[in-house]
Structure formats: structure tokens, C-alpha cells
Amino acid sequence: MASMKVLIIGLLGLLRQLVPVVLAAATLVSCAFSGESSQQQTLTAIQDDPPPAAGVEVAQNTTPQQTLTDDMVFDILLGEIAGQRGEMGVSVPHYLQAALLAKDPRVAERAVQIASYAKDYQAAERAARRWVELDPDSVEARKALIALALHNGDRQEVITQLDYLLAISDDPEAGYSLATTILAHEDDKDVALDAMEKLVAHNPENPYAWMALSRIAVSAEQLDNALQAVNNALAVSPELASAILLKAQILVRMERKEEASQLLADAVARHPENTNLHFAYGRMLLDAEDLEGSREQFAKVVKLEPDNPDGLYSLALLELETGQYKAGEKHLLRLIEINDGVQNAYYYLGYAKLKQGDDAAALEWYGRVESGDYWSQAQLRIAEILVSQDDVDAMQEHMRILRQKDPAQSVTYYLLEGQVLSDAQLNKEAYELYGRALQASPDNVDLLYAHSLAAERLGKLEIAERDMRRILEMDPDNVRTLNALGYTLADQTDRYEEALDYINRAYAQEPDDPAIIDSLGWVHYRLGNLDEAYSLLQRAWDMTQDSEIGAHLGEVMWIQGDREGARKIWEASRQTSPDNPVLLDVINRYNP
Length: 592
Fold this sequence. Notes:
34 helices; globular; mainly alpha
């Protein structure tokens, strides 16, 4: 400490020459501390550390000038240098002292940052009060003080500052939205709820106050209180659309969807011009699988606001879903006109063209997808179209170019290419492709898994088992591999007890996965446990109506003597997947 004071005293002489530059020159000596505490993230109203002095033009300073004292400069420099050395027990009190002496709010702001970084929240709150005192019009200063007061349990300070922010807001809705945002970051939801209740008590005739309380109650998982609060908002302002929407959302959270749907139906009837209500009602109907009703609501949104991007996109997808491809194209093209570069719109335009048999146009649209949620699907569709045109070479060249352009994603491209080859029953080509990919990435779990499945389809059981065991060496609880290895052993060997062990390990982790339930039923069938097999396979069938599960269930029913029931299951499976090889095999074996 003595050596540090000698350094500071030496600097004082230099700083006295800088008095005309004002206090800012001293405060901006700082450098940002490295790292960021998790607690500082919680106190979101507090800004990040200020940048170093090098980027500041002090000549443009407009803060109040004051005479620099030796004590003030000493505290500032000692606070900064100690902080850079990690001596926060020295830095915090000296910077706080400087903040109390200085008339520059930036010193107080810096003191808040340093004390918060050091997790000395009592000191940080004192500094924040000084910051507000020096710059009473600063919303950021008051937000920082609110966050710190919340953390320290100083509820009266929280109420005082929020009341001030609400009082100066020209927009009551925006003011209460800000208050909600601040309080929502409080970890103790009861504290946040109590603070908001006190604010509402000051303004019981303001519907936005009740809505703010409702939202805080939702974040606290107190849905009954949230519903009561939003009902109070509607009692004050019965036709407030945002309150109606909030109530509908709460009712959905409470699993009272029919009430929510009726609420929105009544609201759109009373407010046919409100696009937000139409959009919310459309989503509600979509959730209820009323596609036509949902389409009508989104169409009303677009009629009211022809350039509403959410309305255009939602309407277009519903039109494509119901086979109205031209109408869907029209709305997607309009969406692109007003918001060029919408990747999802490109993808669905490709889908529309593909469904109409225009492969060339589909390829063009899919090719424009360069990023986003549907990028990988677009590449898959391009590859599938090329394979369907018997141009496997072009498909492989497409994938090779993608790997060349983006080597970091080469595994993804190999997996996409392999999936296309497998779907086209080109199993040997898929197996060889995965083998080449594994030469560069021998421990990639996804490649090993795909390679094992391709090997299994070619009857290379030793290789398939080797790949799966390699995965389980690296990840013993890998669910899909446990299930796949168990099913392969049950289906292709007589090692049924070993298969049962693997499948049971997968089932313990994912007891509601129909594929695993199917595997478990199949191994019990192999073991001769017909009743257990039937119960499991029936459960899996009821969940998905998957054709391969139907093949297994029908076989068990046939062996149990229910041949008519087996035929019905097989026929239902054939309706959805007429070319499934597992299904065709079992039908040919038992019901030629």
C-alpha cells in the first residue's frame, strides 16, 4: 500500500496541471475490469464499465466544473488502480468517497459499477443515490438505484423511484411496461409482486397498473392473482385490447383454452378493426386445429394491414397447408417485396413449386435459402429433387461444393447427403459415403450412428454393432444408440436378453418415446412374452400409427390368433406407407 501511495503522490503534481480539463480527465483514467459477475447481470439496470480514456474527447466535456482537491484525485486514482489490481476492498471505499465529494455524476456512476462488480451492493446503492442526486433526470441512474434497492431489500426506495419514473412518463402504458421490465428481473418474485402492488395502490384507476401487476404475478407463477389483476384492468377499461389479449394468454396458461377462445371470438366481433385481436384469435384456432377458421382470421389481418409481415407469413403457411398453393405463393412474394431476404419465405416458395410439380422453380427457390431455420431442409430438398431426376452425380456435386465452401459444416453435409441416398434406397452408396466421412472425423457420434444404420441395412451386423458400441464407449447413456443396438440384436440375432438390457436402459430415460416402446414390445415378442409385447406395441401404435409399429403389432396379433385384427392394422399401415419394406415383408409372410 505504501508503494501505491508514493505513486499517487507523484501523479498529483501532474494532475494539478490538468485542472482546466475538469474532473472528467480523472474519472476517465479507468480501464474496464476483466470479466463480468453473474450478479451484475441480474442488476440489469447497471451499465457495463465505461470505455478507456483513449476514446474520449475531453475537450467536449459539458459536466459541471469544480476545483480538484488532492483527496478527491487521490481517491479516484487509488480506486482505479486498486481495481485494476483486483484489490476491490481498497477500490470500493475510495471510489465511493470520491463520488460523495465530486459534483460529476460520472464519478458516482463509476462508483456504482465498481461496487457492483465487487458485489458490495450496499456501497453500490449509496453511490447510486449520489448519482441520482447529481443527475436527477437520468433514467439510467434511477434504474440502477431500483435494481440495487431491490437486491438489498430496500422496498421503499424501489417504490419511490418507480413512482418517479411513472410520474415523468408521458405514456402510462410505456411507464408501467418499464416498471414491469425492471421488477421482472428481481429473483425474489414475492418482493417484485409486493412492490408492484404498492404501485397499483397509488393508481388503482389506471388499467395499465393492473396489467403490470398481472404480468408480475404471471412471472411469479401466481396465475389466479394474475387473472384477478387483469380482470381489474378490464373493469376499469372493458374494451382495452391489450388487456383482453393478456387475459386470453393467462387463461391458456391455466389450461382454460375454450374460455380464452370465446373471449377472443367476442373481442374480434366487437373490434373487427383490431389486427392484434384477429391474429391472437387466429393462433388460438390454429392451436385447436381449426385450419379454416384460423386462415380466415389471418386473412382479416392482411386485409386490414396488407403489409403486415406476420399476417402474410401465417396466412401463406395455412394456404400451403390446405393446398392453396397459388394463394400461398402470392402472399409469400408480397412478404419478400416488403422484407427482402426472408429465408423462410424462400423455403416455402420452393415447397409450393415442388408440390405443383415445378422442380426447376423449386430448385431455384431452395437455392436462395442461405441461412435460418430451414437452411438444412432446403439443402435436403435440393438433393432429393436431383436424386428424383436420376441425377445422383449432380446431387453429390452439390454437396461437395457445399463442403468446399464451408468445411466447418462438412459433417452436416455428409449427413444430409447420406440421408438422401438412404431415402432413395441407395444403401451401399450411403454406407461408403459415411465411411469416407469417418476417415476425417472418426469419433463423430452422428456419423458413427448413421454408418451403423447403413451397415445394418446391408446386413453388415458386425460393423453396425462395432459402431454402436464405439458410441456407447464415449457416451454410455446415448438413448438412440441404446435403442438401436437393442432393436438390432432383437431383430437380427437371438441375443434377446442382451437386447432387452439395452432397450430397458433407453426406456428408463425416455419412457414415452414410441420408437423405444416399439423396440421394447418387439424384444418381448422375441422372448415369447406375447401379452407384454401386445400391450407395449398397442401403446406405441396409439401414439403414432407408424407403419413399422403397425407391422410389429399386426404380427403379434396374428400369432395370438387375432388375424382379423392383424389385417386391419396392416391395412391401416399400408394406407399411409404402402412401400414400407418391414410392413410388406410381414404381410407377405403371414397373409399372402
